[in-house]
Amino acid sequence: MSWIFLFLGVAAEAMSHVALKETDGFTKPFASALVLLGYLAAFMFLGQAMKGMPVGIVHALWAGLAIITVTLLSTVIYRQHLDLTAWLGMALVASGIVMINLSQGHSH
């Protein structure tokens, strides 16, 4: 169940980051409310994920998965394209996530 909460937390944070661009400095109420609710949901989900997983692992996975998710969403939604170096960095982040999941420190 912790994994489901972790993925929900990542999705909520990624949605908040993408919506943040639409707030226009928090002058647009709907987008601003979406950002704030997304962050609240993200932290609630992450708190639940931490019931069954170590804090450091949850945080590392959350950060890495959120970086990748936000980058992919911004590519699709805002047509923001990254160069090869940035994508190589994303591959390193993804590799780190795999390594964390394969480590013994990951088990509870």
TrEMBL record:
<dbReference type="GO" id="GO:0005886">
    <property type="term" value="C:plasma membrane"/>
</dbReference>
<feature type="transmembrane region" description="Helical">
    <location>
        <begin position="26"/>
        <end position="46"/>
    </location>
</feature>
<dbReference type="InterPro" id="IPR000390">
    <property type="entry name" value="Small_drug/metabolite_transptr"/>
</dbReference>
<keyword id="KW-1003">Cell membrane</keyword>
<dbReference type="GO" id="GO:0031460">
    <property type="term" value="P:glycine betaine transport"/>
</dbReference>
<dbReference type="InterPro" id="IPR045324">
    <property type="entry name" value="Small_multidrug_res"/>
</dbReference>
<feature type="transmembrane region" description="Helical">
    <location>
        <begin position="58"/>
        <end position="78"/>
    </location>
</feature>
<dbReference type="GO" id="GO:1990961">
    <property type="term" value="P:xenobiotic detoxification by transmembrane export across the plasma membrane"/>
</dbReference>
<feature type="transmembrane region" description="Helical">
    <location>
        <begin position="84"/>
        <end position="102"/>
    </location>
</feature>
<keyword id="KW-0472">Membrane</keyword>
<dbReference type="InterPro" id="IPR037185">
    <property type="entry name" value="EmrE-like"/>
</dbReference>
<dbReference type="GO" id="GO:0015297">
    <property type="term" value="F:antiporter activity"/>
</dbReference>
<dbReference type="GO" id="GO:0015220">
    <property type="term" value="F:choline transmembrane transporter activity"/>
</dbReference>
<keyword id="KW-1133">Transmembrane helix</keyword>
<keyword id="KW-0812">Transmembrane</keyword>
<dbReference type="GO" id="GO:0015199">
    <property type="term" value="F:amino-acid betaine transmembrane transporter activity"/>
</dbReference>
<protein>
    <submittedName>
        <fullName>QacE family quaternary ammonium compound efflux SMR transporter</fullName>
    </submittedName>
</protein>
<comment type="similarity">
    <text>Belongs to the drug/metabolite transporter (DMT) superfamily. Small multidrug resistance (SMR) (TC 2.A.7.1) family.</text>
</comment>
<dbReference type="Pfam" id="PF00893">
    <property type="entry name" value="Multi_Drug_Res"/>
</dbReference>
<keyword id="KW-0813">Transport</keyword>
